[in-house]
Amino acid sequence: MSPDLDRKAGSEPAIRVRGLQMTYGEQAVLTGVDLDVRVGEVVCLLGPNGAGKTTTIEILEGFRLPSAGEVRVLGEDPARAGEAWRARVGVVLQSWRDHARWTPRRLLAQLGDYFTPWSTPEHPRPYEVDMLLETVGLTEHADRKIGTLSGGQRRRLDVAVGIIGRPELLFLDEPTAGFDPQARRDFHELVHRLSDLEGTSILLTTHDLAEAEKLADRILILSGGRIVADGSADELTRQVAGTAEVRWACGADRFVHPTDDVVPFVRRLFEEHGDELTDLEVRRASLEDTYLAMVQRTESRATEPGLQEVAR
């Protein structure tokens, strides 16, 4: 956790959920979700298709009513919150119907005007349009019709639309779908800037586990209607595979050793072999390994006799 998060850890969470349940008819999708997102924290929600990620996000955004449970987002119940609350929240959907004949500059200026009444000296709104266009890498395309933009450029515009009001809380749903590697790298820098400099709380969903590992302070895994894992990528990996594998070489001789204490073991290697070491590698289970193991563990429990499988 960053120093900024340590400082803010004592404040009220940006999101607080307890006992969240959602059923569709007789089908239980969420069976007791508990989660927190602290101020200025980047949290990634992972889960297999049908786990209820979209349902959870829609409830937090105020677009869907839960069957049961307590939900507080920026201190309010999103299902009953007013326009002042909505001005504090940004949403980047997987896709949306854009205005093909408008230009990015015109669209952002129009949308930005809606946030002006909610501007305060402590939190001025909206972002200045030219600055935002530069931030998302659309300056050169600012006056082109949106219908002529590439898929990646339109996705950058989606992000700009989601943050034009300078949100205190941002929901990102598969935010880099369609991005090329450079656009993805630029977006990752933007997320870190929003979190570190603006104090924006961010909850994102993605199927890109490498992206989750790069962006998230914490990762939540939703499976079987509940949060089954909560921690940093490194913490979750240690839960599944606490033992790391250290590989090293001294000239032509190669060695492999499993250990729970990587740093002391590597230190001893240098003390014993020094310049004789010609290669050194530490291998841990990847986030993908960890994610698959935790989901499979939950699904196997759900199909045991006497347990009802929960799916969506």
Automatic annotation (TrEMBL):
<feature type="domain" description="ABC transporter">
    <location>
        <begin position="15"/>
        <end position="249"/>
    </location>
</feature>
<dbReference type="InterPro" id="IPR003593">
    <property type="entry name" value="AAA+_ATPase"/>
</dbReference>
<dbReference type="GO" id="GO:0005886">
    <property type="term" value="C:plasma membrane"/>
</dbReference>
<dbReference type="InterPro" id="IPR050763">
    <property type="entry name" value="ABC_transporter_ATP-binding"/>
</dbReference>
<protein>
    <submittedName>
        <fullName>ABC-2 type transport system ATP-binding protein</fullName>
    </submittedName>
</protein>
<keyword id="KW-0046">Antibiotic resistance</keyword>
<dbReference type="InterPro" id="IPR003439">
    <property type="entry name" value="ABC_transporter-like_ATP-bd"/>
</dbReference>
<keyword id="KW-0067">ATP-binding</keyword>
<dbReference type="GO" id="GO:0005524">
    <property type="term" value="F:ATP binding"/>
</dbReference>
<dbReference type="InterPro" id="IPR017871">
    <property type="entry name" value="ABC_transporter-like_CS"/>
</dbReference>
<comment type="similarity">
    <text>Belongs to the ABC transporter superfamily.</text>
</comment>
<dbReference type="GO" id="GO:0046677">
    <property type="term" value="P:response to antibiotic"/>
</dbReference>
<keyword id="KW-0547">Nucleotide-binding</keyword>
<dbReference type="GO" id="GO:0016887">
    <property type="term" value="F:ATP hydrolysis activity"/>
</dbReference>
<keyword id="KW-0813">Transport</keyword>
<dbReference type="InterPro" id="IPR027417">
    <property type="entry name" value="P-loop_NTPase"/>
</dbReference>
<dbReference type="Pfam" id="PF00005">
    <property type="entry name" value="ABC_tran"/>
</dbReference>
